[in-house]
Amino acid sequence: MPRQMLVLLAAALALGLTACGGNRATQPITGSSSPVMGEGGSGSGASTAGTGGAGGPEIFREVPGEGATGPLSRLVIYFDYDQSDLRSEFNEVLAAHGGYLAANGGALLRLEGHADERGSREYNIGLGERRAQAVRRALLLQGAAAEQLTTISYGEERPAVFGSDEESYSLNRRVELVYRQVN
Description:
Elements: H1 3-19, E1 33-38, E2 47-50, E3 58-60, E4 76-78, H2 91-103, E5 107-114, H3 121-141, E6 149-155, H4 166-172, E7 174-181
């Protein structure tokens, strides 16, 4: 599919999602599938797995009970080019999320690692996983339990922004925090 068509399709989808807005914390997203998912530490193996669906946990894009402000409302951690080191500007955000998880044992968090389009597909999957694992380690240090956290890497496959400029690249180098609540 030509790149222009993808951009138009993404814009139409974004417009449609904006028009269908509402309280996102009460509208679960279910049935997503994942190309690479790890459950353990930095040496975790990769597997294919899905989440949500009938009988599974509900997936939230926002922390339940959190308003539009404060560190818990920030659900994306950004990274520098070709790096998986956490930037100090996200220390408060990670401390808040770690504390939230420690206080809410039923909360589950999926850490979705992403990369920009530069580099090979395989390299970017690895980089996304290293980024997700860096966030995981920080949350564990803040009191989250290992069984509350899963990691997944999408590499360059799910860009937040389409474009081949530095601004687009910087928005695509990220880990998204996706909360789920056990039913």
